[in-house]
Design brief:
By secondary structure, this protein is of the alpha/beta class. It is built from seven helices and eleven strands. It is elongated, with a radius of gyration of 22 Å. It has helices spanning 4-15, 79-96, 123-135, 152-164, 200-208, 225-228, 241-259, and strands spanning 21-26, 30-31, 47-51, 58-65, 73-74, 77-78, 100-106, 110-114, 169-176, 213-220, 232-235. The protein folds into two domains: 20-51, no CATH class; 58-259, Rossmann fold (3-Layer(aba) Sandwich), CATH 3.40.50.
């Protein structure tokens, strides 16, 4: 996953707004030596001012599907291995560029692996934690495995609440291999859950209600992500491990270029 070109592109996209700009033709400010010739004509707009760009502070939540289906072979590796490689690397790259990062995993429970306030762990530690909770599984408070459900609605809601407290440009990147699901409070889940939340229409309503956050769907072996998220990158069943890295690197950079505009 290490790629200097990819890292350089991400840096260029994320830091573009971080630089202030100088505006000429002002009536006050610092004297603009390039416009001194205008003084003789009586012009007053011979000053320049430094203007701070808007939206130059970024907050990003990486939201990772940890349902049991992520522990399935795809090419030579499980999907969770590929996903953990990708998300832990993106977290490292963004962190290097002074972007605030939070990492959350979800199935029928929600786990916070990194809050905005905590310093990021090493890439290897993040990757190991994400994989462990899928391959080994964890029991919920009812003593049942947490791997059988995808409570996407609750996970998205949690991420939006975290981002709602942050100033700046907020992004949510959702990595998933399936649509929202739940066994309806049966044996595996152990709690009563609103089945309406698993409708794509309800998920889209939630996304639309949080337009202040730029939401991006990253589909791993899942075309359905395209039906949920307007902004998406998808590696479906026709993709291979060999083109996985390149597909996501190009797709993610292109979406970030589109969503993060100079202000």
């Amino acid at each position: 996953m290490e790629n200097r070109v990819f890292e350089a592109k991400i840096k260029n996209v994320m830091t573009d707004n971080m630089y202030d700009r100088v505006i000429a033709n002002k009536r006050k400010g610092k004297l603009d030596s390039n416009r001194l010739y205008k003084v003789a004509t009586g012009a007053e707009t011979v000053f320049k001012q430094k203007q701070e760009r808007k939206g130059k502070h970024y907050n990003v939540v990486l939201l990772i599907d940890q349902s049991g289906s992520m522990h399935c072979d795809w090419g030579r590796e499980d999907k969770i291995d590929l996903c953990a490689d990708l998300t832990s690397y993106i977290a490292k790259v963004l962190d290097r560029n002074s972007v605030n990062i939070a990492i959350i995993g979800f199935n029928n429970e929600i786990r916070e692996y990194k809050s905005f306030e905590k310093k990021i762990k090493t890439q290897a530690e993040v990757r190991k934690a994400l994989i462990y909770d899928v391959k080994r599984g964890k029991d919920n408070k009812y003593g049942h495995s947490t791997l059988h459900c995808n409570h996407d609605y609750d996970a998205l809601e949690t991420a939006y609440k975290l981002l709602g407290k942050k100033k700046g440009t907020n992004l949510l990147m959702v990595f998933s291999d399936g649509r929202p699901s739940c066994d309806g409070g049966g044996y595996y889940c152990g709690n009563v859950y609103d089945q309406n939340k698993h409708q794509v229409s309800e998920i889209r309503k939630l996304i639309n209600a949080n337009r202040n956050v730029k939401t991006i769907g990253i589909g791993i072996d899942c075309r359905e992500v395209a039906a949920i998220y307007d902004n998406h990158v998808v590696a479906d069943e026709d993709s291979t491990k060999e083109n996985f890295d390149q597909l996501f690197k190009v797709g993610i950079v292109n979406i970030l270029k589109k969503e993060i505009k100079r202000q």
